Sequence to fold (149 residues):
Amino acid sequence: MNATRNEHTDVLLIEDNPGDIRLIEEAFGAHSEDVTLSVVHDGIAALDFLFQRGEYAESPTPGLVLLDLNLPRKNGDEILEEMKNEPTLRRIPVVVLTSSQAREDVLRTYDKCANAFLTKPIDPDAFLEIIESVREFWLSTARLPDTRG
Fold:
């Protein structure tokens, strides 16, 4: 085991595409003993989860957020901005996973303090490889901040 390996990590996936959710769940599912993956499907639910409001009042504070940019009700940019403006959430790493390849999207999300910007490949096998590399880096190599309070 790597010396920097995180013991257990709560990961929040903010994604509305059922196919992408299924692939990400598959990639994280093999590691369920050290990862709890929570999924929300729109921007309002994401902010409720992160700020522990309403039905998400008991939700764990994630150690890592996987964020799609194109979401219903509130987009990923708005979520990222609210997270990084909140002292209790700003240290949580945010990996943007999007279909966009636009230079403006890359620059804008890094300006809002995203930790990584990844374009989702169309090929499911390539998509799984990217998710595996995200999982390996963020959950095994990088040291995450302790968000459990």
